[in-house]
Structures are given as C-alpha cells and as structure tokens.
C-alpha cells in the first residue's frame, strides 16, 4: 500500500510540474522575407531560439554580442537549424556605452534596413560595474538597450512599420524605482527587479514617443527559462538552480514563443506599449503603468547616457 501511495504521489507531482510548465506555442507561419532583425544576446538561450525561428521565416538576422567565438559558433548553429544563410554576427558590449555607439555606427553603415529590434540580452543581479560606472545589471539591462534603441530609432522609422521588443520579467513587481539611486547595488536581486521594471517603463515611453510614426514597442516576459544566467554565481548555487530550473522552469525554445509572437503577429502590433506573457497581452501592476514615472525615467536615462 505504501508503494502505491508513493507511485500516485510521484505521478501527481509530475503532472503538477507539467501543468505549471505548460505554455502556448506560436504556430503562425507568416514570412519575414526582406526584413532585417537585430537580436542582442542572440548567441544563446532565448535569443538564439528566436534567431532560428525568424531566420526560418526568411528574415535577415543579425545577432549582437561581445564574445566573437561564441557568436561565430552560434551563427553556424542558427544557419544549420534554420536552413538560412542570411545570419551574421556583429560585436556589441552593452556594458560599454562607447561599444554601443560604435556598434550603431557600424550597423547603420552596413545594414540598410532594421525592421525588428529585439532587446534580449540581460544580466542577473550581481555586484559588478560597467565601463561607465553603472551597476552591471542596470547598465546592461536598461541603459545599454536604451542608448542602442535611440541611436537606431531613425532607421526603424525609415523602415516602418517596425517593432521594438524589450525582454523583461514578472519580478518587476517586487521593486519601484528610486531616482536618487537608480543603480541600487546593495541587494543584487532587487537591482535586477528594478532593471526589469525600467524595461517596462522604457517600452511604454518608447510607444508614446513613436506614436503615429510606424514603430510599435512592447515588453515581453518569456517566463522563467532554463538559461545560462547562473554562470555568474558559485558552483553550489549553480547546482541548486539547475535542479530548480529543471523542475519549474521552461526550455529556451518554449520561452522564445512569446518573443516570436510579438515579432511576427499582426495582433501583437495592435498593442503598442503593451506587456505580453504566454503569447497574449497581460495586465501590469498599477505602479508599472505610471506614464509620469516612465517619462521621468526616459529623461534621466537620456542624461545618464549623454543623449542630451
């Protein structure tokens, strides 16, 4: 009898885990021939899976990351999986505003189109700093992408209708912004939460500033994904998180589905400024829909990256 209880309990636990990890798949086969897609951090995880899916639909895909060896390997794998030769890599270090500016200059010289920009690269909350003195998490997740998007915005407008997708996380709900100290580096997890909230405000303000100009913007929560973010932590923490991620997190392929949906779907384009989860619009906490805070963050970010 004890054995039967154990079997039923194990089966029940298994089905609960399977239900918790259940997600929608985006199956629309809309083509992207003639369009150019730029994906930051497209050499691994969600970014790589997104690159494969969009290359399969005929898009020219540019993956931007700082490690050339990893990027070249990823480009070969993306080409193989997507059966597309129109995939390339350009060097970009989002932790350096100088690198962002150089990348944008090179991209605009070499690429005549930009139809979809996917701000995918991200850093977990760790105590480290960018070349410009910002916390690494906030500097990469928000400021690097903020500058990148603004410098590429003229090309996005030229190629309208175009889209900007910014990956965020539901952990935004655990923090609010402190404009006296946007870096907030004492508790790494809260730094991460603030950077993800900043991604949401950025996406909303971008939608407002580009309204009527053919550029749509949305924030995407891909779910909790089995990615490689744990490499920045200790061995014991990595082992613990591997078990937790195996049990509760979804694969990168599944996590990429909402990103692909927002990049391709005509329905998603109707919700500029929206927040998407599991291939559909989702509701944000009231404080994350504050247009005044979004505008204030935009203006503060312009000063920090020296756009004004």
TrEMBL record:
Membrane-crossing segments per the record: 6-21
Key words of the record: Membrane, Oxidoreductase, Transmembrane, Transmembrane helix
Keyword set includes Translocase: no
Tagged with keyword Oxidoreductase: yes
Any Pfam family: adh_short
Similarity annotation: Belongs to the short-chain dehydrogenases/reductases (SDR) family.
UniProt protein name: Si:dkey-174n20.1
Source organism of this protein record: Kryptolebias marmoratus (Mangrove killifish)
């Amino acid at each position: 009898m004890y054995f039967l209880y154990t079997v039923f309990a194990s089966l029940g636990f298994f089905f609960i885990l399977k239900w918790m990890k259940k997600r929608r798949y985006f199956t629309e086969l809309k083509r992207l021939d003639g369009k150019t897609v730029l994906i930051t951090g497209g050499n691994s995880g969600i970014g790589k899976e997104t690159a494969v899916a969009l290359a399969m639909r005929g898009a020219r895909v540019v993956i931007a990351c700082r490690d050339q060896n990893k990027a070249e390997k990823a480009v070969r794998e993306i080409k193989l999986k997507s059966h597309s030769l129109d995939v390339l890599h350009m060097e970009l270090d989002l932790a350096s505003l100088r690198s962002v500016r150089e990348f944008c200059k090179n991209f605009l010289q070499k690429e005549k189109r930009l139809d979809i920009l996917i701000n995918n690269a991200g850093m977990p909350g760790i105590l480290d700093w960018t070349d410009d003195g910002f916390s690494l998490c906030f500097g990469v997740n928000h400021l690097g992408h903020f500058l990148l998007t603004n410098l590429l915005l003229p090309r996005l407008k030229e190629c309208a209708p175009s889209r900007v997708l910014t990956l965020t996380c539901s952990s935004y709900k655990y923090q609010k912004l402190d404009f006296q100290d946007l870096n907030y580096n004492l508790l790494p997890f809260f730094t991460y939460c603030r950077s993800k909230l900043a991604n949401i405000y950025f996406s909303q303000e971008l939608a407002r500033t580009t309204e009527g100009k053919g550029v749509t913007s949305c924030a995407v929560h891909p779910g909790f994904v089995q990615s490689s973010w744990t490499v920045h932590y200790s061995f014991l923490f990595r082992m613990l998180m591997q078990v937790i991620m195996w049990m509760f997190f979804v694969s990168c392929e599944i996590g990429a589905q909402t990103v692909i949906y927002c990049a391709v779907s005509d329905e998603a384009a109707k919700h500029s400024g929206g927040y998407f989860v599991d291939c559909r619009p989702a509701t944000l906490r009231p404080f994350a829909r504050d247009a005044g805070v979004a505008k204030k963050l935009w203006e503060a970010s312009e000063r920090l990256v020296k756009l004004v």
